[in-house]
Structure formats: structure tokens, C-alpha cells
Request: fold
Amino acid sequence: MKITGVEASLHRIAPASPWEDATNRVQAIEFVLVRITTDSRHEGVGITYSVDVGGTAIQALIADYLSGLVIGEDPLDHERIWERLHRQSRRLGAGVNSMAIAGIDVAIWDLMGKFYGVPLHRLLGGSRSSVKAYISEIKLSPSDTVEALCERIEGYRARGFDHVKIKIGYDDFERDLERLRAATAMLPPRSLFVDLNQKWLLSEAISRAGDLDSLKLGWIEEPLVHHDVAGHASLRRQLRTPLALGESLHSRSQVLQFLTAGAVDYVQADVAFIGGITEWRRVAATAASFNKPVAPHYMMELSLQLLCGAPNAFMLEDVVGGSFSELGLLAEPIAVSNGVATPSDLPGHGIVFDPAALEACRVDPASVRSSFSGGSK
Ligand SMILES: [Mg+2]
Reply:
């Protein structure tokens, strides 16, 4: 079997509900879809993404450079293909190239599942047939109130979620504490996760550690700037609450630094940002070596397959307004039911996009120029 074609298209779509966290206000998610065809008529569909910026660069890197390295290869040799793509793009650092490689790599894994006739989670080892999910909201607007937050949590609980993630990181920590006290009162202990999106300095985080520990949170996510290994290690030594991070990392070597420094409890590598399924598996295995669970960031429908394949899976993130299903992109929605998600039994990743919905948000990369005004605070 030989790869004969690689196509990459850019799709720009606003979240199904507005996203705002402590450091960013999101305009759009930029998905790059990769379709790989072969001489044996097997096909694979890959997906990768960026938030707000970089979709055109990812699409161009695949279309202009990486696709040529893949054509003629046997897609079953996914490790060899990944190494070739990584080696060839290494001068770009780690970031856009990892995200571009991910698009191709996910397509190859989808294709392999279809070739072998098994769903992806079984191809990855078949650790479980379903996984627990938490609901994850991205809502920290200045106008949000504690009452509105409590109403939303009631709604999540009514849908069967008993684990919830909320954003904090207002300039006024007392306002964060009001949210946290109200939310933790509505949930079992260790069932509220909080995400700072890198808002705090180490000194701020340490001064707030006692308050945070008293709330019995499930984890504190990205409290500090994402590359601060020593800072997270130092903070972790002063907290009884676990730390979660990894969504902003782009390679297993970056994750390894946090693990060896004792700076992380839950590894949240994102399958698209880390370089695809081939690299995500290595990260999961590395985390397992440190006896740490994985809880991948976003990409709900794909992360579901990964978690059901990984022995050290923790929980699936279902981002409000962000799953392919909620964005209306799927021909067959994949929903979390009563706080539990079950992957499709279709061969491959089982994510079947609706062609008309994809077409409706497809953009010509040239048209993106001058349309972006920035969302960082
Ligand atoms: Mg996060």
C-alpha cells in the first residue's frame, strides 16, 4: 500500500458559545483537515487545529512541504513517516511543525484502523470500552456572576456530570475565591478542576496556596506560564492540590522535563499540539513510567479514542461549545452520556464529518489576512 495523495484544507469556526479565560478571548478555532489517499483505495482523515492564529501556516506547511515527504510511503510505517516529517521540519523548533505533523499522523492512524478493520482505541491497545468525562467551561467574562456560574453547574449536574472544570484568574483573587467556594459547595470533594491559563506569577500562586488547598480541588491547571518547569516544581512542593498541565507543550521531551522535575500530576498533552497520535502515545507511556495519569486537552472525539487505548487514562475533557459534535461538524454526533463517553465502533477514529458543514466553514487561506484582530488580554 502506498500513499498517493495528501490534501489539506483550512476551516475557521467560532466556538458554539463565547470563550474567554484569564488570558485570552477566542475569536475562532482553526481546524486543518488532512485527507490521505492510497493506491489500495484506503483513505484516512486527519485533523489538527490552532486557536485564533496559525491555521494558514499549518495548512501551508502540510500542503507545500510535508505532503511531498509522505507520498509514496506505506502508511502502516507510521513511526518511520513521523520521524521523517519531524527530522525534516526540526529547524522550525517545536510548535507549528508538531501541529502540522499531527494532521498527517492522525490521518495515517485513521487509515490504519480502516485497513485493519478496528476502531482506533483497539488499535492503540484497547484498555477500556468507555471513559468518564468532565465538563469544561471557558467562561471568565467580567460580567459573569457567581449566581450564573451556579446555575450552569446545576445544569451540568442534571446532565450527569459530577466533575466540572471552571476558569479562574480575575485580577481580584477574592472574586475567584467567591466562585470557587460556591462551585465546590455544589460538587463532591476533589471534583472541581480550575484552570488559570497561565495567569499567575509564582509568588502569587504560592501566596494563594493555602486558600486553594482548603477548597479540596481536583487539580489546578496551568497556574504559571507554560514553560516554567522550575516554577511549577516549586509550587507543587508547596501545594497539597495536584497540578495539571501539558496542553501548551509540543514534544515528549518538554513533557519529560516537567515529569523529571516533579512539576506535574496530570499530563494534559493535546494530540494536535504534541505532534499527533504517534507522539501522544509516547507521552502517555512516559507519563505512565512516572505513574502519572493522562488527561488530554480538548479534541473530545479524538481524545476519547486515545483515552480508551491508554492504560493510564484519567478523564475526558468535554469543552462547552467546542466538540466537533457541538460545532455541528459531524454527520454522526458523538455525545457524552451521563458523564461517560463511549467511542464509535467504526474502523479508524470513527469521526465522520458532515461535508456540507465542513464546506460552510472552509476558508481560503488568503482570505484570513487582515481578518484577525487579536484576543490576548
Ligand atoms: Mg487549560
Summary: Residues 195, 197, 221-222, 247 surround magnesium ion (CB under 6 Å). The mean pLDDT is 97.
